[in-house]
């Protein structure tokens, strides 16, 4: 029995905001990842913490969960339905044979809406300027990459069409 207990490895738990199309519909996604555990069976649960510090169960109407299992790790995606300007700290709990592990993330819905949709909340000028500069840089890199690819293809085609070199002729 003691040997069996030593083989159990608690999961490493991390929580991240997950990007999805749900942001456009007034929802946010959270990803809770449990990895590096043995045995690989876990159960997820969520709680949210109000600004006053009180923990509460997540009402079923305000969230739905999807679980994804892969070798060595399991993820739960929580789709949160809540109004704009909500500020909660979400806690992900992972039940495992080795015990209970938790991780948390503070989710401020207005920030997430601003980064995904201009129509939901207006951006401040600094964010707008940064976004434009980032897009310009991205398009510049893509254009340069395309030009290099075309030049490389042109060079290869010209070398291929030229055929074997005739610069060195043998005397008869």
From TrEMBL:
PROSITE patterns: IG_LIKE (PS50835). The chain crosses the membrane at residues 134-156. Gene3D superfamilies: Immunoglobulins. Residues 11-106 form the Ig-like domain. Keywords: Membrane, Transmembrane, Transmembrane helix. It holds the Pfam family C1-set. The keyword Membrane applies. It comes from the Eukaryota. InterPro entries: Ig-like_dom, Ig-like_dom_sf, Ig-like_fold, Ig_C1-set. The keyword Methyltransferase does not apply. This is Ig-like domain-containing protein.
């Amino acid at each position: 029995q003691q040997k069996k207990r030593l083989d159990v490895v608690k999961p490493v738990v991390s929580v991240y905001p997950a990007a999805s199309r749900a942001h456009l519909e007034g929802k946010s996604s959270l990803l809770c990842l449990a990895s590096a555990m043995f045995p690989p069976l876990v159960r997820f649960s969520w709680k949210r913490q109000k600004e006053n510090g009180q923990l509460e169960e997540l009402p079923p109407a305000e969230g739905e969960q999807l679980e994804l299992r892969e070798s060595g790790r399991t993820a739960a995606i929580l789709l949160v339905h809540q109004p704009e300007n909500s500020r909660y700290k979400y806690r992900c709990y992972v039940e495992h044979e080795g015990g209970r592990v938790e991780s948390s993330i503070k989710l401020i819905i207005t920030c997430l809406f601003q980064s995904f949709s201009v129509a939901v909340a207006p951006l401040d000028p600094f964010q707008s300027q940064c976004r434009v500069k980032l897009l310009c840089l991205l398009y510049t890199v893509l254009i340069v990459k395309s030009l290099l690819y075309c030049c490389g293809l042109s060079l290869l085609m010209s070398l291929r069409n030229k055929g074997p070199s005739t610069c060195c002729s043998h005397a008869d």
